[in-house]
Structure prediction request, 170 residues.
Amino acid sequence: MKTLHIVGYKNSGKTTLIARWVRLLKERGLSVSVLKHHGHGGKPQMPDGNTDTMQFLYEGADAAAVAGGGAVQFIWNEEPNFHKLKEIASIGKPDVLLIEGYKQEKGDKVLLLRDRSDWETLCDLQGIRLLVGCPEIAGEVSHIRSREEIEAIDCWFLEWIGKDDGNETV
Prediction:
């Protein structure tokens, strides 16, 4: 499984980029999972409080799963460590796991920069394979000067997908 982190601060384009890359991968017949860090504080938005699932959780269930119509929704009433989250996200054995966030965790990274101050606080991250944005930055890795250079970004990604590195067993 190929694993790639897409990191940067709020409004740097992470979600937009991941959504486009999911579409690219699916067009090529690859399976893809996404793991996202909820960096907005507090719990992610939960289902309506009147659902059976939420009633189970309110009464103390540690986890609840509901399945139907070809989909499964799973809520775990604790936040596991990063490794366990990757296991959960890759339970269907995807070809590619895209990770939004988790900057400090080990792995290949695409770093989206809004400005020079982003670079100054994130330049020490391990595993940076591509910088996007902030054209005045000079780095030792691939650098695409603007997130508007969609074709160049997508070409880099598809080339990265084709390489033998970045593979991971979870």
User: Anything to note?
Assistant: The first helix runs from residue 14 to 27. The beta strands are 2-8, 32-36, 63-68, 71-76, 96-100, 109-112, 128-132, 142-144. Helices lie at 14-27, 52-58, 82-89, 116-122, 150-162. The first strand starts at residue 2 and ends at 8.
